[in-house]
Amino acid sequence: MSQLKQYPDNGYEIDYDFNNPALCKVNGVIYSYCTQCGTYIGCETDTNWYKLIKQECCPSCREKIIREQTAIRQKNFRKRNREEKRLVKQQNTLLKQENKLLREAVMALRDDVERLKAHQERAC
Prior knowledge:
The protein is α+β, with helices and mostly antiparallel strands. The protein has helices at 49-54, 59-123, and strands spanning 4-6, 13-15, 23-26, 29-33, 40-43. The termini are far apart.
């Protein structure tokens, strides 16, 4: 349901029921303003309707937003890589410990086999 506000000084009705926060309807005409700096982007009568409903900010603010989003994506990527490398190193150390224990177990079994062979030779 739309929200209608009546301003007593100019008498404009403003409807804010849009998915795009940059859009507002004033007396039945849809206007678009930058969500970052508030500059006028366009009106449904003087610009392309699809461009108007898609655009949320002016070109200068758009560059700034793209830079910020890129920085956030890079930060998250580096964080994921660091976590992945940490897990790989941890797994590597655990595998080294397991290999060491298995090597010791194999050596102990070989010693047991040699001892049993020597015991059987003495018994015969």
